[in-house]
Specification:
The protein is α+β, with helices and mostly antiparallel strands and 141 residues long. It has four helices and six strands. The strands form two sheets. Strands 3-4-6-5 form a four-stranded mixed β-sheet, with helices on one face. It has a two-stranded antiparallel sheet with strand order 1-2.
Length: 141
Amino acid sequence: MPIEAALDAARDAGMDLVEVSQNQEVPVCKIVDYGKMRFEAQKKKAAAKKKQKTQELKEIKFRPNIDSHDYMVKSKKITEFFENGDKVKVTLRFRGREMAHQHLGMELLAKVKEDFAEMMKVELEPKLEGRQMTMVMSPVK
């Protein structure tokens, strides 16, 4: 159909002539209400954005000589974070003479890694930065 005839048909219908596919040998056009089409596209984009889950970085702080019950409470919270699809940064803070026993911190982080092996992967291995040791874990999809 020639362009002029298509434009006349669109005017008669009280709508707009919209080019759908411009990269073809013959351009493809539709007669639609352009404002309504833009509104629906915007609505679809907003719905897709709403369904999208962003991954947050949550932090759990430990001490090298943590008690077993305190460890269980914090591990329950880590499990909750993984179920929500968030990454977890485990921070182990040393104070005073605890710096002399860094092996205890490595053992604790190894225990955390072992306890959550089936539901996470280690993104950043444990490393010492000043007076704290950190490890970043992310959930397995």
